[in-house]
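Example record for the data management plan.
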Amino acid sequence: MRVGFAGLGRMGQHMARNLIHAGHTVAVWNRSADKADALAHDTGCALAATPAELMAGNDVVITMLADDHASDHVHLGPDGLFSQEGAQTVIEMGTMSPDHIQALLAAAPPNVRVFDAPVSGATQAAQDATLLIMAGCRASDATAVAPLFDAMGRAVIYLDKPGAGSVMKLAVNSLIHGINQTLAEAMTLAEAAGIPSTQAFDVIEASAACAPMLKYRRALYLDEANADVAFTVALARKDMELAAALAQHYGIAMPQGTATLQKLLEAEAAGYGARDMAAMLAFMRKEKP
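Corresponding structural encoding:
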């Protein structure tokens, strides 16, 4: 299959590589051209000068973008995907607001299907093609692109309607960021009582409270300053703002989510925005009642 891929960040570059390794003919575009150049050099994939060029030359275009604003630019800009005819399917796999997905559906050219299919899993899962894909469509709608999902993920859950993937991604990330904040508080409490960080994490990791993300992020929690960034505080804040807006839309309470968002905002204001979200532990160590 001819596939265009836009967005070669920490996750996207691995996802694009896995499509190439699965035998698909892939062309890539990235706002920072050096990342696209490096991938083309390593894999022999094609380069596109603009998102419009991706759209013109491929059957399917996949985007893995940071937020609604970036997605607006790539889809709706003067040289955006929707400025050009070509691909019959566009799949947005980044974490977007449900309203943004609906806007893409409304703006898409005639005969172009738009799917929201965000993913759950860290950079290692992207590299290993073990992502969980949450698809806002029926399985029968996605038959043609199922091989692409298979190349990038371990499982696909079809949620039957457009935007449902986006909603579930925000729900899942709300839980993840809540766990991250609670872990930071639990570790700070143990450390305040004189228990070494490694010992405290050993106990948490062996306990009923341990989520899979704590296991694969162990090195980040124990030495975040010297580990590669996987997911920034700023992106976590963005997720929680979207979740809070969605909760307000539906008239539901998310008190823990509100508290998590507040701490992320405070950490970002204190200069932690570009650090991995594990830096919330370092931030909480400095917090006083």
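Summary line stored alongside the record: The chain has 14 helices and nine strands.
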